[in-house]
Each structure stands twice: as structure tokens, then as C-alpha cells.
């Protein structure tokens, strides 16, 4: 339970870092929205004409953004736990 609380606090404290990573990967909110929708929409529910002109680079950027945000939070969590063990 204590670990979950630490992760939630880290997510809120890392918002400026997430915003910086967002600006590195995406031009505007529309590009972000369309790429996130494509990542989380199964191929069965997509329009066949749209699947031919899919932006695989945009989807890759969205996935990289999600993993970077999770990775930053995970690294900070591990460092914080190791500091708490030293005390």
C-alpha cells in the first residue's frame, strides 16, 4: 500500500517531465490524440481504408512516449525505495 502511494505521488510530481517528453515527441494535441487512439484501437475495429495509410511512425512515437513516462516513474520509484532502505 505504501508503494502504491509513492507511485501516485511520483506520477503527480513528474508532470513537468511528462510535458517535456510530450513536446519532444508530438507537434500538437491532435497528433497526440490520433496516435494514442490508433495505438489502443484493435485492427478489427479500424476502417480498412484508414489502415492502408496508417502513420506507423506516429504510433511508434506514442508507444515510446508511454514507455518513457513509465520508465521515468519506475526509476524514480526504485531510487526512492533504495534511499528509504538506507535510512
Descriptive notes:
With 87 residues, the chain is mostly helical. The protein has one domain. Helices cover 82% and strands 0% of the residues. The protein is built from five helices and no strands. It has helices spanning 2-13, 15-25, 29-40, 48-52, 56-86. The longest helix is centred in the C-terminal third of the chain and has 31 residues, at 56-86. The model has no long low-confidence stretch (mean pLDDT 86).
Please give the structural blueprint.
Elements: H1 2-13, H2 15-25, H3 29-40, H4 48-52, H5 56-86
In brief, what are we looking at here?
By secondary structure, this protein is mainly α.
Characterize the overall form.
Answer: elongated
Number of structural domains:
1
Number of H- or I-type helical stretches: 5
On the 0-100 scale, what is the average pLDDT? Answer: 86
Number of strands: 0
Report the helical percentage. Answer: over 70%
Topology as a string of helices (H) and strands (E): HHHHH
Structural class: mainly alpha
Major sheet details: none
- Provide the gyration radius in Å: 17 Å
Beginning-to-end CA distance, first to last residue: 20 Å
Keywords summarizing the entry:
single chain; mainly alpha
